[in-house]
Amino acid sequence: MVIKSMSPNIIEGALNIYTDGSSYSKPRVGGVGIRYIYIGKNGVEIIEDLEVPGYKSATNNQMELNACVIALKEALRKFELTNFTKIFIYTDSRYISDNYKTAIFQWSKSKWLRQSGCPVLNAELWKELLKVIKKTGRFVEIKWVKGHKKDKHNKAVDKLAKKSAKSPLDRSLTITHVRRKLTTQSVNLESVEMCGQRISVRVITSEYLKVQKINKYKYEVISKGSRFYQNVDIIFSDKLLKAGHSYIVTFNKNCKNPRILNVIREILSK
Fold first, then answer.
1. How confident is the model over 203-222, as pLDDT tens digits?
2. Structural domain spans, the chain
């Protein structure tokens, strides 16, 4: 516990929480950073940092979300929340601050599908966040702060998140099967137009989305005659495909909700 003078953004009478998520690609690991700040009875600011081990195979958005989830779960354990009028979570993630109200008022009522019908990614974590917000019994607001600038608390949780990522336990938030790309291109969303075409693809990653009961695939186009040849994109399907395997498939005609409609056959390696 550290006691210091009042900082900007800190609301008296509230539990103020700074969170951050961090991830590294080689190897793919992620971590979270959490700092609690509140004003004690003597009017001074009290700071408590929470150190949490990281995760394997984690994305940055997953860690940003998970930081909020863990922060609120630990707050329920650490504090008597009836002593606080509100809970404010400060994050430099637009992914969190721009979408949490949409998650509450729209996604949770649409079976975690966007208006286009495309699955909401990280739905399990979003559901867990809404559940723990409700459990606090407090008004919870998530505020955006500019990252790594003048805010000392944001800098502190950034360091905690990086430290967390560097000491991951043997655990993953999701099970994703991964294989190396053949192309040098990076994933580029909507780089492959959905024209109802028959096309050859190679699956790079496969992940089952439990909430929506559908598979998410990252794939590369291997049809040399296609104008999308070697492009890497994301698509969804109820068809079961394996990472590292190649297939001739047919796409739908909705770029906002890309789907594999049919698997014609697997392309066997020569």
1. 999 999 999 999 999 999 99
2. 2-172, 176-267
**Among residues 19, 13, 71, which one has the least CA distance to residue 40?**
13
Tokens (6 digits) for 141: 């607001």
pLDDT recorded at residue 193: 97
Write a three-state SS string for the chain.
Answer: CEEECCCCCCCCCCEEEEEEEEEEECCEEEEEEEEEEEECCCCCEEEEEECCCEEECCCHHHHHHHHHHHHHHHHHHHCCHHHCCEEEEEECCHHHHCCHHHHHHCHHHCCCECCCCCECCCHHHHHHHHHHHHHHCCEEEEEECCCCCCCHHHHHHHHHHHHHHCCEEEEECCCEEECCCCCCCCECCCCCCCCCCEEEEEEEEEEEECCCCEEEEEEEECCCCCCCCCCEEEEEECCCCCCCCEEEEEECCCCCCCEEEEEEEEECCC
The CATH number of the structural domain formed by 2-172 is 3.30.420.10
Angle formed by the axes of helices 60-78 and 152-165, nearest 10°: 110
Mean pLDDT of the 18-36 span: 93
Question: pLDDT tens digits, residue range 167-202?
Answer: 887 688 888 999 999 999 999 999 999 999 999 999
> What topology does CATH give the domain 176-267?
OB fold (Dihydrolipoamide Acetyltransferase, E2P) (2.40.50)
The torsion angle over the Cα atoms of residues 120, 126, 128 and 130, rounded to 10 degrees, is -120
- 4: pLDDT strictly greater than 60: no
Examine domains 2-172 and 176-267 and report if their fold is the same: no
Looking at residue 1, what is its pLDDT?
53
Amino acid at 255: C
